[in-house]
Amino acid sequence: xxxxLKYSIRQFVCYSAKAVAAIGVSIAMFAxxxxxxxxVPTLDIAANIDCADTGTLNDIFEMHALVHPELTDSTLxxxxxxxxxxxxxxxxxxxxSLMTFDISTGKxxxxxxxxxxxxxxxxxxxxxxxxxxxxxxxxxxxQGMKLVRYTAEGKFxxxxxxRFSSLSPSxxxxxxxxxxxxxxxxxxxxxxxxxxxxxxxxxxxQRSIILNNMLLEEFNGLAAFRATDTLxxxxxxxxxMPAVAFTLNQYATPYYKLEESKKYFAEQxxxxxxxxxxxxxxxxxxxxxxxxxxxxxxxxxxxxxxxSACIPMEKLPDFLGFPFIIDGNKYFVxxxxxxxxxxxxxxxxxxxxxxxxxxxxxxxLLLKPKM
Length: 371
Fold this sequence. Notes:
Number of domains: 1
Strand content: 35-45%
Oligomer: single chain
Number of helices: 3
Radius of gyration: 20 Å
Helix content: under 10%
């Protein structure tokens, strides 16, 4: 199946949408001492805004797997998200549908959509991930305000009431971020993969927000979130610790109160609103600035810039992707979805036409950092 043109645009727009959603996070929300940040990787985004394109993806990554997901009536892929790997099984979510595929063969193993109003259903599935211990799906129903658990095949197992704004794997558990109104205290709740409460984490901080709070995402197996210039991870013993810092200098977003939204919209072009994803010793930064889309990969070992590519807005509709060599052949690949990192791998998509078959699903490329 030929990947729609708007799909390539979405790959970049979805990044910036999440980045802009973070504008109201206060720098002072989680104050860290200089001693705490001493050994934390620090990526100098400000110094690399106008840098020339540099590096190749083959310099950074090696192929873990190239998956050709089987096309069936229930597995037509348009905007999928990779949610995890369990054994040799690839877990994917597309809107309210949950799917699994055999990584080696691409064969569809299961696909289900449990939307409904019954006690075993969900209304709006925000996100779902495989348990690292059992392979069961654990997800959050945003509208039904509950955690749900299903087997990989879709059999209902359990549910419990919860009111979160995001969900992420965190070690062998799952972390939920408390749904927060302006001025409320930020809280995180830890659940086992059997939906049993494990812990709660209080920040003792209030946050004012304009659009949304920074949402939980996975970083090296742990739940993490970004507060302006620092990425924080929830450690295995359920403490909040700095994981990656970012140097923004004059491009750092000022603190806006909720009632200052008009001021924000008038000034937003002066600042960088960025997204970050990382695995192993590689960090990926995406942002828009001066009508350009900029994708960069950094080393989390020595903070060096490894790859940078700038795509002007006007060229985005014709953007094919970034070249990546597989077995001597060049393919054009694009980062996959809003969170293109899962289980230590960076996830990319390749149009099926590049393999000579426009009637199949796009291919999924799983890359591991060489570093």
